Amino acid sequence: MSNTVETVTQLAVPVAEELGYELVDVEYTKEGKTWFLRLYIDKPEGIDLDDCAFFSEKMSETLDAQDPDPIPHAYYLEVSSPGAERPLKNEKDFQRAVGKYIHVTLHQTVEGESIYEGTLDEVTEDSLIMTIRIKTRSKQITLPKEHIAKARLAVQF
Predict the structure, then answer these.
(1) Are the beta carbons of 29 and 4 closer than 8 angstroms?
(2) Which has the least CB within 10 A, 101, 126, 134, 135?
(3) Tens-of-pLDDT digits for all 157 residues of the chain?
(4) Is residue 86 part of a domain?
(5) 74 and 24 in one domain?
């Protein structure tokens, strides 16, 4: 399954870049008896339905032109915006998120916790520096990048 994601990612990145989009994520998953290939795209001014339809059409053509077919069985191709809680997957994503509210899940606890939400203050070569709130006070915490399982933008309530 991850091989399919890698293959589709390699095909989708140049298509996205050519059309002025950024490929944010690729998922290939089975739900019930149905397979879904989901591609998430973005651009600085945001994505609308026309962008999704246009990119879907171009990716369909690209996938159909491959021999051998990277996905030889039936599946649904879905293209959408990453939404308000966009995943943070690479250095560029983290740098762009500085000053924003994020959610981080860790493989290994830091100061006894494995989930943090707060404002991303700084990104260094090997860590994220965040300001978190604990009841009524703010505290700055450093999270080693090697401990990060997942990170995404978060909506603050």
Answers:
(1) no
(2) 135
(3) 469 999 999 999 999 999 999 999 999 999 999 999 999 999 989 999 999 999 999 999 999 999 988 998 999 999 999 998 999 989 999 999 999 999 999 999 999 999 999 999 999 999 999 999 988 999 999 999 999 999 999 998 8
(4) no
(5) yes
Tell me how far apart the alpha carbons of residues 135 and 130 are, in angstroms, rounded to a whole number.
16
**What's 36-77 look like in SS3?**
EEEEEEECCCCCCHHHHHHHHHHHHHHHHCCCCCCCCCCCEE
97 and 60 assigned to the same domain? no
> What is the DSSP code (8-state) at residue 87?
B
Residues 101 and 70 in one domain: no
Last residue of a domain, one of 80, 100, 121: 80
Number of compact structural domains in the chain = 2
